[in-house]
Amino acid sequence: MTTAQQPYTDEELAALAERAGRDLEDASALEILTWAADTFGDRFCVTSSMEDAVVAHLASRARPGVDVVFLDTGYHFPETIGTRDAVAAVMDVTVHTLTPRQTVAEQDAQYGPRLHDRDPDLCCALRKVEPLQRGLEPYVAWATGLRRDESPTRAGTPVVGFDAKRRKVKVSPIARWTQDDVDAYVAEHGVLTNPLLMDGYGSVGCAPCTRRLLEGEDARAGRWAGRAKTECGIHG
Fold first, then answer.
1. Which residues on adjacent β-strands are paired with residue 206?
2. Which of 123, 124, 209, 232 is catalytic?
3. Cα(80)–Cα(205) distance, rounded to whole angstroms?
4. Secondary structure of the chain: what % helix, strand, coil (to 5)?
5. Of 150, 153, 140, 152, nearest to 175 (Cα)?
6. Could you give the CA distance from residue 69 to residue 187 in angstroms, rounded to a whole number?
7. Does residue 95 contact residue 88 with C-beta atoms inside 8 Å?
8. Which residues touch 122 (CB under 8 Å, ≥6 apart)?
9. What average pLDDT does this structure show over 146-152?
10. Per DSSP, what are the bridge partners of residue 93?
């Protein structure tokens, strides 16, 4: 049953997402985001790790003032916080910062220091997955910057799909892009990027769990290096 909070049933959303994913597979990123903005209005947002602001910039062209949701885990590089602040200041978006229920100090007191070293899955669940779950509650659809070329685990990313775990439409408008496509868009539009991308990092996450890339590694190899872990839990 639909409610005032949720205008679609799960079945309706899943069918809508499946149809859009099929129909928009060959559409441009801007066309995909325009579809999402037109379909969901203010119940649509963009999530950004502030690795770059490409999807936020694209979405602002489709829907000026679009909500951009950022997770401040308490472990970010200063450059990431600086990128967030710059995006909020110069782009036609509305940045919303989400925080975990506990500060780092409170988490350390309950679980012990450096939980990210001992149990990174739990740390991500506490500092990323749960805050995002809360932060996405007002929305029906959310956009991500996932790309198929980033890693084998993301190779099957649809441009529009149904996030059954969160019961929302998940839009990945640049899923088909390559790094060259991203670089070209950044250069053409002067899009803000995290300075760490120019300092050997291929993907920017929390400082304790992110390192520079080695020669020949894929873009996400510097995340949780030396572990089987490849995702924080937000995307699988």
1. 76
2. 232
3. 9
4. 40, 15, 45
5. 150
6. 24
7. yes
8. 111, 115
9. 85
10. 66
| CA 165/CA 182 separation, integer angstroms | 29
E strand or H helix at 204: none
Whole-model pTM: value is 0.89
User: Do residues 69 and 135 touch, judged by C-beta distance below 8 A?
Assistant: yes
Assess contact for 156 and 172: CB atoms under 8 A: no
Which helix (DSSP H) or strand (DSSP E) does residue 135 occupy?
A: helix 130-135
Q: Is the pLDDT score of 115 beyond 80? A: yes
Pair of tokens at residue 108: 């350390």
Kindly tell me the burial class for residue 90, based on how many C-beta atoms sit within 10 Å of its own C-beta (0-12, 13-18, 19 or more).
exposed
Six-digit token string for 196? 């760490």
- pLDDT tens digit string along 7-63? 789 999 999 999 999 999 999 999 999 999 999 999 999 999 999 999 999 999 999
* Residue 206: active-site member: no
* AA identity, residue 214: L
Residue 18: CB atoms within 10 Å: 14
The identity of residue 21, as a single letter, is G
Residue recorded with tokens 């996932």:
146
Q: Which residue has the tokens 């059954």?
A: 164
Cβ distance 48 to 69 under 8 Å? yes
Structure-block tokens of residue 207? 């400082």
Q: In what order do the strands lie in the sheet with 44-47?
A: 93-98, 66-71, 44-47, 141-143, 168-171, 160-163
